[in-house]
Structure of NADH-quinone oxidoreductase:
Amino acid sequence: MTNEFVLEAITREFPEAVLSASEPYGLLTLEIKKEEIKKVIHYLKDSSLNFFFLTDICGIHYPNDKGKEIGVIYHLHNMMENVRIRLKTFMPRENAEVDSLVDLFSGANWMERETFDFFGIKFKGHPDLRVILNMPDLGFHPLLKEYRLEDGTRTDKNDLMFGR
């Protein structure tokens, strides 16, 4: 099974869903419309493509990319053919919500909770969406790039020491 075969099968079944396709380091990477992501993943699992293993779900934040600030990345693996695929979907920060995959992959439960915990992305239909690694009353999502990396008020450090 080749990346071209998988891409052709997806575009044949969902002609409007794929926004872009690339193969960094040989890994087929597709950007999928947010409304279609669960349908595409369901197709990859239940068709003859046999992507039965959900390796990972994670979030990403591009604060300068207006309208596409928040993303969810899915990694799937066809273990019989040893083929992997990466699916990405992006959305505005104000509407950071995608469909849950818990009904397709039970292992998605904790991955979605972790992504919610760190990025604030809501998963519609998740059975128990609450924080698991941070304190419940933390008040922010730590992996969002919404704070300065350094304290600009410090006077006790010299940037020349750090090569700046």
User: Anything to note?
Assistant: The chain has a mean pLDDT of 90. Helices lie at 3-13, 37-46, 108-119. Residues 3-149 form a domain with the Beta Polymerase; domain 2 fold (CATH 3.30.460.80).
